[in-house]
Amino acid sequence: MTTVDFELDESQRAVAEAPADARLLVVAGAGQGKTEVVASRIAYLVDEEALSASTGIMVLSFSRAAVQAVRTRLAGRDIATTDVRTFDSLAAYLISQSGVEPVGSFDHRVRQATKLLESDTDALDELDDLEHVILDEVQDLVGDRAEMVLALLARLDESVGFTCLGDPLQGIYDFTLEDSHSKRTSSEFMAELTGEFGASVVALEKNYRARGDFPRAVVDLGHVVRDKSRDDAAQSVTRFEYTLPHSGEVMDWGFLDDPGAGRTAVLCATNGEVLRVSRFLTKQGISHVVRRPAQDFGAAPWIARIFEGMAGPEVARSDVEAAIEAKLDSSLQDEAWYLLKGAEGRTRTMQQLNLPRLRSLVSSGSLPLTLTEPDNAQVIVSTVHRAKGLEFDRVFFVHPNGAAADMSEWPVIRQRYVALSRARDEVAVIDVPGQWSWFESRDNRQRERKKSKQGKKYTFAIEFGPRDVRDTSPVPNDAERQRAMQVELTKVRSGALVTGVFDSMSPDGVPIFVLRTASGAELGVTSDRFGNALDYEFGYRFRDGWDGVAIDGLRLVSVETAACDPHLTEAAGLGPSGFWLVPRVLGLVTPER
């Protein structure tokens, strides 16, 4: 029998210890120990069913946090690293394996990967080694991504088992079908699992997350809502929210700055509300991180560190492992080589790594989740959608500050339930101060809009996103400055306050800002993409030039590894590896002189 640190209940054990060829659809509500079940499932398949952790098992998830939790549960069990990816990362990886550079939007890559899976190409023969697939959060598999997963399952041999875990009550991504070529809903996808692929439906029973009175009451609410019609479910959720502690309008956000309270989430309905709350916290000096979409998680910073000074294209395993031992924390040393080699994917050359291959994976966003850098902070501000799969000690649910949604619609009911079910100890409702502004999106960027006294609409602030830092190559011809930035990026911590100060004009004539910490240390420079957006919205204010202009209100989310042609990093004084560090920052900014 597989030994685990967590005592599984009967329903969990039935899933974890099912045969490798079993096909299961597991209904796993919030807090019912899904992570423990996944970790125990992997351990059982390896220890008792003799599957290879690295080649025989694949785990697909939307959530980086869920992956990290599984890795934590598996630590110390002497199990080789399992291939864990997001669904989007799988698409990019399959395309790369076919010899094509992943390009275009994530949706385009997913459709391209689906076509490859449906073809007879030999480029994906390594899938023949798979013996079991674990799918997480399957209630969110809709549209094009659902088609890709169905194509993957259809390609595998009938002897290959799968364990699909999800909760129909938490399915909140059907709204993405508007932009999807396929219109397959989550309920249709799960029906396909039980029909075409013969999955047996089982359910987990107990809740292990909720500890406080109100979080425990949310568990009961979930049971009630599952058994009701839509209108009755909406009324049940609304009545429950009325029983929760309610702050009223919050002016002082200092209650969030309490390390003894554990991890805290402020959950919002929209991206605009997230940015607005983040601005309140920034003005009051509350360290926090804004949660990004999973596809925006970039490569872990330690990748750039270990390849510093290595030229490639092939590097010896002995050299990589020596760098790992010298530069990485002990918690990463045992698995770093296997993570890199697993991502690179060339199993016939186990004593070498191909740096061009790794650079391509980094620059195209094709790395598995185990090699990405997550959002990590004491206080997280997030949309409800981006908080899926996460759990917190405290959760504060922000009442929407805008046009009220139809509370009787299933997507809204599910979203409210997901928000309420993230908490272990405390859950409450808060209101943000009302403001005479609203948010609009242009070119995938949020703009905060206002009206002048004359009734004319104008842009008050724009979103600074994770890709608004220059990451296609280091700035050339300034080696000393670039090296100094790399040193500072190894010291700065997530949540740090960042300010942009005008630095120069790009060759295309848009403003470039250097990003500095509160102490004045330089971390990076803004991209042409951001410069174009800033000039479009605010250029009329600075016709006399951008000298002396600054952008405040930014917070560092993470430091990540970027990749490009090694000649460019060498020309910038950063060595021949083609890897270097970049900051990711978020916030609402208004240029001021």
Overall residue-averaged pLDDT value: 87
Query: N-to-C terminal Cα separation, in Å?
Result: 67 Å
Low-confidence stretches: none
Structural class: alpha/beta
Question: What does it look like?
Answer:
By secondary structure, this protein is α/β, with parallel strands linked by helices. It has 18 helices and 22 strands. The strands form four sheets. It has an eight-stranded antiparallel β-sheet, sandwiched between helices. A six-stranded parallel β-sheet has the order 3-2-4-5-1-6, sandwiched between helices. A six-stranded parallel β-sheet has the order 7-14-13-8-12-9, with helices on both faces. A hairpin with a 2-residue loop joins strand 15 and strand 16. Helix 2 crosses helix 3, helix 4 crosses helix 5 and helix 8 packs antiparallel against helix 9.
Question: What is this structure's SSE topology?
Answer:
Layout: H1 10-16, E1 23-27, H2 34-47, E2 57-61, H3 64-74, E3 83-86, H4 87-97, H5 106-118, E4 132-135, H6 143-155, E5 161-166, H7 186-195, E6 200-203, H8 213-226, H9 230-243, E7 246-249, E8 264-268, H10 271-283, E9 289-290, H11 302-306, E10 314-316, H12 317-327, H13 330-344, E11 352-354, H14 355-363, E12 379-383, E13 392-398, H15 410-420, E14 423-431, E15 438-442, E16 445-451, E17 457-464, H16 479-489, E18 497-505, E19 511-517, E20 522-525, H17 528-538, E21 550-563, H18 566-571, E22 579-589
Parallel strand pairs: 1-5, 1-6, 2-3, 2-4, 4-5, 7-14, 8-12, 8-13, 9-12, 13-14
Antiparallel strand pairs: 10-11, 15-16, 16-17, 17-22, 18-19, 18-21, 19-20, 21-22
